[in-house]
Amino acid sequence: MKKETYIPIAHICGTVLFLGLIQWLGMLLVLWLYDIGFDDRILLYYILSVLFHLMLAGFLIIQRKDFYNLSHRRFLLRINIPNYLSLFRISSMPTLAILLVITWDYPSLAVLVVVFTALVFLSDLLDGFIARRTGEITKIGTYLDSMSDYTVLMVISIVFYTYRLIPMWFLWVVLIRLFTQGLGMGIILLIKGKVKVETSLLSKTSIFAIMVVYGLHILNLFISSRLLSRTILPAVDVAASVILAASLAEKLVKLWQYAHEEEPVLPQE
């Protein structure tokens, strides 16, 4: 049997490094243009962003075999445009988070943040559209879409807490839900070299519950209602937390089952 050739590790590392450099140099440019000091928040951003990109590169290297074109049934030797767009969106999350946080102290950043956010979310529409139109749908693309959805939720949650729109305990519920699932998937990747990305009704409901909570907290900024702020919001927060806990339990059970799933034995030639 002819051995398949997978995408080179050097190409993956070079791509992630290039995307990281765009973010880091772009952030330095923003600091210079808007005369923003290099404080502890910016330093933390660079440290976490570097670690984030290292983990992203590690994930892509482990999943090299999933750079597989499902339409043409062949392995990719280079990252295609749809995957580039997905990786750009994921790479942008730390930068978007810090921009949203420091906009509180530098309101002049608001226009830039809106434009940058629009570009990030536009990439979410373009990657799928381009993949379908050009026949470049890949297996790794499904993983990247899930990763981008979770990183977006993480960024939104941190920003909402920064602006005191949600209580700290709800932020921890969301972060524990996302981090625990991510950690579980990472462990399975190390053990088995691959992981299944599955969605369920409960998983979709948990994401919907988070969006409802955030929508109501935004609404509370514009509607001065004691009923909403003192009764409805606390009840919705608790209900969403219960859904998130149930969804996490379901994910952990599925990951445990997959970790102990026997691999099919291929017939000898």
Characterization of the model:
By secondary structure, the chain is mainly alpha-helical. It has helices at 9-33, 40-62, 81-102, 110-134, 139-162, 168-192, 201-222, 226-259, and strands at residues 68-69, 74-75. The protein folds into two domains: 1-163; 167-260. The protein is 74% helix and 1% strand. A two-stranded antiparallel ribbon has the order 1-2. It is globular. Mean pLDDT is 83; it is low at 264-269. It comes from Winmispira thermophila (strain ATCC 700085 / DSM 6578 / Z-1203). The chain crosses the membrane at residues 12-36, 42-62, 83-104, 110-131, 169-189, 201-219. It is found in: Membrane.
* Helix content class: over 70%
Structural class: mainly alpha
Tell me the total number of β-strands: 2
Give Rg in angstroms: 20 Å
| Order of the strands making up the biggest sheet | 1-2
Number of self-contained structural domains: 2
**Overall mean confidence score, pLDDT:** 83
In whole angstroms, the N-to-C terminal distance is: 9 Å
Largest sheet descriptor = 2 strands, antiparallel
Element string (H = helix, E = strand): HHEEHHHHHH
Show unreliable segments: 264-269
Bulk shape? globular
Strand content: under 5%
Q: What's the tally of helices?
A: 8
